[in-house]
Amino acid sequence: MTVPTGPAVRVRGLAVSLDGAEILRGVDVEVAAGEWVIVIGPNGAGKSTLLRAIVGLVPSAGDVRLFGRDARRMRRRERARLVATVPQQPVVPPGMTVFDYTLLGRTPHLRPLGRESAADLAVATRVLQRLDLTEFADRELSTLSGGERQRVLLARALAQEAPLLLLDEPTTALDVGHQQEVLELVDELRRAGGLSVLATMHDLSLAGGYADRMVLLAAGRVVAAGPAASVLTEELLATHYRARVRVVPGDHGPLVVPIRPASAGPAGPAGDARM
Amino acid sequence: MTHPSPARLRWRWLVSGVAAVLLAAMAGLWLGPVRLPPGAVVLEVLDLVPGLDVDSGLDDRQAAIVTRIRLPRVVLGLLVGALLALAGGCYQGAFRNPLADPYLLGVAAGAGLGATAVLSVYRAATGTAAVPAAVPPAAFAGGLGAVTLTYLVGAAGGRDRSPATLILAGVAVSAFLAAAQTYLLQRHVDTIREVYSWLLGRLAGADWGDVRLLLPYAVVTTVVVLAMRRELDVLSVGDDEAAGLGLHPQRSRYLLVGAASLGTAAAVSVAGLIGFVGIIVPHLVRLVAGSSYRVILPLSMLYGGAFLALADLAARVVDTPREVPIGVVTAFLGAPFFVLVLRTARRVPV
Predict the structure, then answer these.
(1) Assigned domain for A1 exists
(2) Mean pLDDT throughout A216-233?
């Protein structure tokens, strides 16, 4: 395989229509090598579709380049060696063990109809160790908790040994502790292994704390892009999320705090007593 | 700490599968209306091996019963059972549905129509009682034709080419062909009995010609499906994720299901419609030996073959000298056995 060069992702003028409805239009996104870019936006803005278009799961128009190469002219296996995806709602195959699931990540490296070599088993073993999952190796995936399962999904993606990681809402199903755990892990891996990461997220404060840059997507268009402080502003969030928030500075990025609209009645016993 | 290991065929499962096949084959050769000494039967079979020359002590008539009547029947039973179980496991993986059976895409309806057409037309034209030699080829052509039709209808679904589209196409094609078959039967009521005895499956009267007929298809199906068994495991994460891992899910599915359908149509053409084996055997294997198709498929072949050979044995000994249709036996033996395994297996069914 040729050594990847150039930005991990370079999307220009991306447009996606599904069943005649325009989902994305004129979208430009770039992820430099080693960078972590997080895409935010209200429900239905097209965040997941953007990720799906980048890996060719939905037909799209415009220019998509991965490490300088035209993504549409790559073969599937080639692309799978460059990009690993952690889907938002993964299929959990009944009865499959954590180790076998992780090994599926080696698929693009096997010859067609081939089977895993000792080297492939070693990669899976190493990834499980790295993610602290060795003790779960023989457990069935379906018996794990949400946080453990998310780590296993990451393990499969890492076993792919692709230089670009796409995460579709990696923390949505997790409690705050596990959210931090997973994101810290991704950050650590990215710093250690030169991974580039493109993620979609809903939790704005969390996103702001980890992203090198953010992209705000609304109604299929990029409406803001840049450092977290320039995207997470009260005005932008009010306009595109129709949310009343206060943005306060934090240690690693702005913190977004939802504020109850002033027009709502006071909460508490006094309010209830009048009902 | 021990290193984790991937799902693979464990020796004990493989050995017990081979043992089951050998036991079923022995019982099939030994038992029957004519009693033969088991030791002599073994020697007689060994004598067939090129280069081996042993004297079994059986006279010519007894030897002919073993080598020309019972042995081809046992071998055909093993082959048909192995093929149906393999095809069933393959369909279940390709469609990610444990209820998929080898007849899902219309093989049964197509083969039924083919056989009915030949029997009714032949009967009307000649008035003789003999089963024409054209029934197996007609059934084979009908079965494969039906699957081809299902593929074409499924592909007409345009952009939405999910597994469900293909299954629904199979349902539509099956219904259409079954209607055509019923129409033919109504026009030729005198053939109903014969058509039904064919539909219920039979290995009686099997000879080496049937085995020769089936063998090439069995080889092709087995080689293609077993070569792609890892892809079935990858398909278990769904089409999107499989594509993200570098696979062409729809292409793999068409190839797998096409190969399985070929073997099913060939099996049906020589043995009729034998239900149950294709669903229950892979499921039992899954319950006891794990969910990887790399394990399920080879083991299903062994246990499917053994199961059908034993069912055939039961079909010919419970009601001698008459024979019970083997499709009745497979369901009658298989269902209680399935319940038993469900109650004792450590794994939760899918």
Answers:
(1) no
(2) 95
CB A67 within 8 A of CB A41: no
DSSP assigned state of A169: S
Please give the ipTM for the structure prediction: 0.88
Q: Which domain holds residue A20?
A: 9-273
**pTM recorded for the entire structure:** 0.88
CA–CA min distance B240, chain A (Å): 7
Q: How far is Cα B32 from Cα B282, in angstroms, rounded to an integer?
A: 29
**pLDDT confidence of residue A271:** 44
In this structure, what CATH number is given to the domain that contains residue A113? Answer: 3.40.50.300
What is the C-alpha separation between A12 and A65, in angstroms, rounded?
Answer: 9
CA–CA distance, B139 with B120 (Å, rounded to integer):
13
Highest mean pLDDT among A25-39, B110-124, B155-169: A25-39
Instruction: Take residue A42 and report the two structure tokens written for it.
Output: 């209200």
The yes-or-no verdict on residue A205 having pLDDT over 50 is yes
Closest to A201 in 3D by CA, of A185, A182, A219: A182
Inter-chain contact A81–B246, Cβ cutoff 8 Å? Answer: yes
Q: Measured between CA atoms, how close is B311 to chain A, in angstroms?
A: 30
Cβ distance B4 to A76 less than 8 Å, yes or no, reads no
Could you tell me which CATH class the domain B11-344 is placed in? mainly alpha
Chain A residues interacting with chain B (CB cutoff of 8 angstroms): 52, 55-57, 76-81, 83-85, 87, 90-91, 93-97, 99-101, 103-105, 107-108, 110, 113-116, 121, 124-125, 128, 134, 137-138, 160
The verdict on residue A93 lying in a domain is yes
| Cβ pair B241:A85 closer than 8 A | yes
Q: How far apart are CA B74 and CA B87, in angstroms?
A: 20
SS3 B161: coil
- Test A55 with B1 for CB contact under 8 angstroms: no
